[in-house]
Amino acid sequence: MNKKNAVRSLMFLASLSVTGFALAHGDMTPQAVNTDGLEPLGKEWRDENPYRPPYANNKLAVEIGATAYNQNCARCHGLEAKSGGIAPDLRELEAGAEGDEWFKERVINGAVRDGAVYMPKMADFISQEGLWAIRSYLESVHVE
């Protein structure tokens, strides 16, 4: 094998490995969240975060939400909810009921643009309790 063919072969193999890595990174299925200890919410979606004070002592919800966020959201929205610019910085999501409306709509319906899924319908994979726990975590790291 001559030097030119060897280089081409190496480049081809490198491109295959990079392609496989990129596809694996983008093909993520949300993981279920263990919500033991949180008040069960039932099937009907709440309009506001039921784990926000004064409704509840939300320390457990924040802890569960932090773990759930790291498992399901950090890949796109960044560690500690600090976006690298690709997806929205969720620390800036409006606090309180106003932000709950946007959060609820997005986790239930996901985000699709021009046929491309930018965010899956998280409610298809994570319970309402797990998603409101994530919202509680996001409010705990909120910035203006």
Strand % is under 5%
Order of helices and strands: HHHHEEH
Largest sheet: 2 strands, antiparallel
Shape: elongated
Describe the structure.
The protein is mainly alpha-helical and 144 residues long. The chain has one domain: Orthogonal Bundle (Cytochrome Bc1 Complex, Chain D, domain 2). The chain contains 5 helices and 2 strands. The chain has helices at 3-26, 59-72, 74-77, 96-109, 128-140, and strands at 111-113, 116-119. A two-stranded antiparallel ribbon has the order 1-2. The longest helix is centred in the N-terminal third of the chain and has 24 residues, at 3-26. The chain is elongated, with a radius of gyration of 19 Å. Mean pLDDT is 84; it is low at 15-26.
Summarize the structure.
With 144 residues, the chain is mainly alpha-helical.
Describe how the helices and strands are arranged.
Elements: H1 3-26, H2 59-72, H3 74-77, H4 96-109, E1 111-113, E2 116-119, H5 128-140
Antiparallel strand pairs: 1-2
Helix pairs in contact: 2-5
Question: What structural keywords apply?
Answer:
144 residues; mainly alpha; Cytochrome Bc1 Complex, Chain D, domain 2; two-stranded antiparallel sheet; 5 helices
